[in-house]
Amino acid sequence: MCLQENGLIIGSIGYSTIDHDPLLSSESQFEFGYSLHPDYWGLGYATEVSVLMRDHLMDVEQASCIWLRHFDFNRQSEKVILKL
């Protein structure tokens, strides 16, 4: 993840296929995660990149299922997930 205005790297995001549900093809199940520098927490960047990733997985990768999880103590990430 980088800021559009100056290219500063503020975090990362990635995805992989995952096989949580045996009734679905493992090639159509995905999980993604992100990491964001603390200086940029609470500014909407996590939600913005998560929406973009969700849309990419559904539209381009043809995902049938996207699995998301967070650490119990990380309520901000829980809020991001609920927005999706």
Q: Describe it for me?
A:
- This protein has 84 residues and is α+β, with helices and mostly antiparallel strands.
- The chain is built from 2 helices and 3 strands, in the order ββαβα.
- Strands 1-2-3 form a 3-stranded mixed beta sheet, with helices on one face.
- The longest helix has 15 residues, at 45-59.
- It is globular and about 40 Å long.
- The mean pLDDT is 92.
Q: Which homologous superfamily in CATH is the superfamily?
A: Gcn5-related N-acetyltransferase (GNAT)
Domains, number? 1
Q: Rg, please?
A: 14 Å
SS elements, strand count: 3
- What fold name stands as the CATH topology? Aminopeptidase
CATH class bucket? Alpha Beta
Distance between the termini: 19 Å
Q: Averaged pLDDT, please?
A: 92
Order of helices and strands: EEHEH
CATH architecture annotation name:
3-Layer(aba) Sandwich
Largest sheet properties: 3 strands, mixed
- Note the overall shape: globular
Low-confidence stretches: none
Name a few traits of the molecule.
84 residues, alpha+beta, Aminopeptidase, 2 helices, 29% helix, globular
